Amino acid sequence: MNGMDFWMLISRLIVIFYTAFLFVSADRLYTPYAVLFLLLYLSLGIAVCMIRPPAWRRGITLLALALTVWLSVRGHPAFLFLLPPAIFAVLAEYPVHRYMFCLFVFLPFLFIPYGDLPAYTVITLFCLAIFVLAARSNDRLKKYEEQSDSMRSSIEKLTKQLHSSTEYIKQSEYTGKLEERNRLSQAIHDKIGHSMTGALIQMEAAKRMLSSHPEKAADLLQNAITISKEGIEDIRITLKNMKPPAEQMGIHRLRTFIDEFSAKNGLPVPFTYRGDLDRLTQMHWRVIQENVTEALTNTMKYADATQISIDIHVLNKAVKAEVKDNGNGAVRFKKGLGMLGMEERAAVLRGTVIFDGTAGFSVTTLLPIE
């Protein structure tokens, strides 16, 4: 049952009670037939609310209207009061130009006795008000349903695009790995493989000439040693070029962690860095990331902050990593295992950690740079 059916049924019930009262108070001889028709009229109204196929609904409403008109003409005049709900029920099933067809509900004014005209006018206006309010409410509900369906369709489309993007990223990463493996294999084959093969050939030749031409064999061995050294140097250069710098590894890991933390907790986390990051070693980055992680965790637990900022500044003799929030702060605080752990990690590199709770809370890690 939708909103329109509910309010139309309510208007029918009210009019039915009023009509039944008229029969009971004015014409007791006709009361049994009136009760029979009123029950039939109410049953048809309930049936419309329970049936879904539009053709059946329209047929039942037209049947109720036809019976009401027939009984109004051939039966008791009080049945005229049932015409407005029946007409509006038909209009509810034919929504095209429904407000224009509402004029038909005023046609019975030409045939109603003058004494019943005020009551019929009140009933008509009452049903009209309910019909207009129910129609607007139903139209608004349909509009919201269409918007909901549109949003659901958009969400499904975005979800599919997200899955496609995720698969594309995975495929791109896998393709990149394959390309890097192919490049490494080709570099080993072109440079190192040829060098090792040349050295091996000269060592085999030196082995054969060792007894008959020892000086020539020594020259071949020296050439093989030189070629082997060059091959080893090529290996070292190739591996060095493959290994990313500590600065790229450290800043990339830290930035990835900060982005994940911000997205997970819904907090903006501005991240800035200054200075020559190439001077930082893997140990520096490890201590910085673990201390930043611990500081962010403590902020989410205790600070009740709405914003967190992270700043890394490489100075001449040290690096400073600061995590600051705009939370409650604490002038006096007791160092727990997390704070003690941050100090211990910094002490390994002869560094220190400064805690300040005067304006929000900040954790500053200072590490010396050799």
TrEMBL record:
**One GO cellular component term:** membrane
Residue span, Signal transduction histidine kinase subgroup 3 dimerisation and phosphoacceptor domain:
180-246
Q: Which EC numbers does the record give?
A: 2.7.13.3
The GO terms describing molecular function are: ATP binding; phosphorelay sensor kinase activity; protein dimerization activity
Q: Which Pfam families match?
A: HisKA_3
Q: Does the keyword Metal-binding apply?
A: no
Query: Do the record's keywords include Ion transport?
Result: no
The record's annotation in CDD domains points to: HATPase_UhpB-NarQ-NarX-like (cd16917)
Which top EC class is named for this enzyme in its record?
transferase
Q: Which residues cross the membrane?
A: 6-26, 33-53, 59-83, 118-135
Catalytic activity as recorded in UniProt:
ATP + protein L-histidine = ADP + protein N-phospho-L-histidine
Which keywords label this protein? ATP-binding, Kinase, Membrane, Nucleotide-binding, Phosphoprotein, Transferase, Transmembrane, Transmembrane helix, Two-component regulatory system
Could you tell me which PANTHER family the record lists for this protein? NITRATE/NITRITE SENSOR PROTEIN NARX-RELATED (PTHR24421), NITRATE_NITRITE SENSOR PROTEIN NARQ (PTHR24421:SF10)
User: What is the name listed in the Swiss-Prot or TrEMBL entry for this protein?
Assistant: histidine kinase
